[in-house]
Amino acid sequence: MLVSADGVLLEVGGIDWESAHSGTAFNLSVHGIHTYFVVVGSENVLVHNVGCDEAAEQILQDIGGEIFTFSPPNGVPRLGDYGLTDESFFYHTVVVNDGRVFDQFTGVGGLPIDDWKALWTYGDTIDFGF
Question: Model pTM?
């Protein structure tokens, strides 16, 4: 169990022991937050919830296409709001196939690239290179 800042007990959903490299390692998912910082010793470390990378790999296996990972534009701390979820993103990974973008939020049909980019605060900065 974990205790939140306001004293509420939170259940740990599971531990992935294979992720340990040196010492003890734990996987922690935080509902509604895509990436977040944790303190390790005296360092702030950016960690990533299970989500877009794994979803993109599965989508790629199912339909093919090309995986893209993008980060915020220079000077911006995060990607901004994404109209399909209330999660906060420091980076995001998607699959592009036949002019459509697929991620864990778009559904099986994906969305046309321009429609998908329009869902982001900084969508005009997302560059798929074509």
Answer: 0.62
